[in-house]
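pipeline/complex-builder :: batch 7 item 3
reading input block
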Amino acid sequence: MAWVESGGPVQVLDLDPSLAQGVPAAEHDQARQRAVARGLDIYATHLRPVDLSATRSGATLGFLVADGLLLRRVTVASRTTGELFGPGDVVRPNDDDLVTYAPLTIAVDWLVLKPARVAVLDEGFLRRVARWPSVVAAVVQRIADRGGRLALRAAVAHLSRADTRLLLMFWLLANRWGTVTTDGVRLELPLTHEVLAMLVGNQRPTITLALHKLAEQGLLIRHSSADWLLTSKAVHTLGHV
Amino acid sequence: MRRLGQVALIDEDAALLDLVSESERSAVRGALTATAYAVPAGPWTPGSLAGNGDSHLGLLLLDGLLLRDVSVAHTTCGELVGAGELLRPWDAFGERAPMPIEIDWKALEPLRIAVLDHDFAATLARWPALIHAFVARAIERSHSLALHVAIHCIRRVDLSLLVLFAHLADRFGRVTPNGIVIPVKLTQEDLGKLVGATRQSVNVALRQLLDRASLTRRDDDTWLLNHHALTAIDHLLAPRSPRDTVV
C-alpha cells in the first residue's frame, strides 16, 4: 500500500469556509464550485517530503490540512522541538528539502500522529480562484498565523514552570482545535508525553510530573490517550499567569 | 512614517525579477506596483497601514531590519524580520487569550515598506509564480521562527547565541576572509529577547564568545562570526549530558 494516496477532489471552501470570508456573497456559490483541489490521504507514520514531491506541480500554494495531525520536528544541538499541524493549517513539507541552515546541522522531519487528508493547492487551483484574491490572502494569513503561534511558543519555552508551559500550550491548541463544553474545552489529540515535551521544551519526566500536578489541581484532565479537557478553571488560571 | 509613492516591486526585489521572463518584465513592472512608506528607526506602530479588506496580502519589507517582540507571562521573545519578508502586523493574534499577550515592533534601522493591498493581490493573480514566491516567503519566516523556538530551548546561553549568530550569518551575512560579517546592530537587550535570556546572562555569554574569538564585535557595532567557530559549531553543540537532550 502506498503511504500517500490520491483521495479524490476536495471542495476547498466547503472544507474550510473561512477561506471564503472575503468573497462577495453574490459570488459565493461560483467560488465554491471553482475552488476544487486534489485530495491526498497520508497514512505514513513518518512522512518524507519526497512522498509529496510527485504532487509538486508548478506554483503550489501548499497543502491545506483537512483532517489528521502532523508533527514537524526540528533538532538542533541534540534538542528536538515540535510543531503541530492540523485542520485549517497550510503546510509545505516538500520545502524542507530546499532549506539549508549551513553551517548548522539541523534535522527537520515530519511525523503523522493521526492519518491526514490534505487538499493540494496547486497551480490549477490558483488559476481557478484567481478571480478572488481574498482566497489567496486567506492562505497567506494562515501561514502568518503560524508565525504568530511560533513566536508565542518561543516565549512559552522560557517560563520556569513546566505546568504553566503546558497550560499555555494547551490553550494554544484549544484555541485552534478545541470544542467548548460546559466543563471547559475538549481536545481530541493523540499527544504523548514525548510529543508534549517537544512542544514545550522540557524533558519527558518533567512533563509526566507536571501533567500529574495539573490533573490533581483539576486544570487539565486526560480522559484517554487522545481525549483532553482544559477545564474552565484552567482558563481562569491563565488570566493570572 | 512618510509616504514615498508607488514602487515597481520587481525593481525593488531582485528575487522576484528572476521569476519573470524577459518578455513579461515590462508588463509586470507597470502592473505590479505598491505604495511604499519610510519608517524611521525606533518603536513602530503599524496600525495605520492595516488592511481594510480581506484581500490585503500584507506588508513587504523592502529595506531595513525590524524586531518583533511577543510578551506573555512576563517573558519576551524577539523575532528579527529582514528585507524581503512578508508581515501581517494587524492580524489579531492572541486577542481572545485569557492572559495578556503584547506585541511590540521596533525598527532597528530605517525601513522601507510596501503595502500589498487588495489591488495588488488582484493583479498578482495573473502571475502564479509570483504568488508562489510570496507564499514561500511567509513559509520561510515560519521556518526561521521554528528554528528560533529550538534556539530558545538550548540551555547554555553561549551556545544559543552561537546558533543565533550562525543563523543570522546564513540570513544576512557576507563572507570575508576572516569570517562572516553580520551587518546587524543588536544590543545586548535585543540579543536577550532573541535567545530568551536576561541581559546579564547575554553579557557573560558574549564575553565567553569574544574571549574564545568565536565572535568579534566590529567598530561599527556589527558582528563578525569567525570561521573557526563555524567549523567547530557541531562539536560545540554535541550533547555533554543526558540533560542536554529534550526527550
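note: The two ends of chain A are 49 Å apart (CA to CA).
queue -> next item
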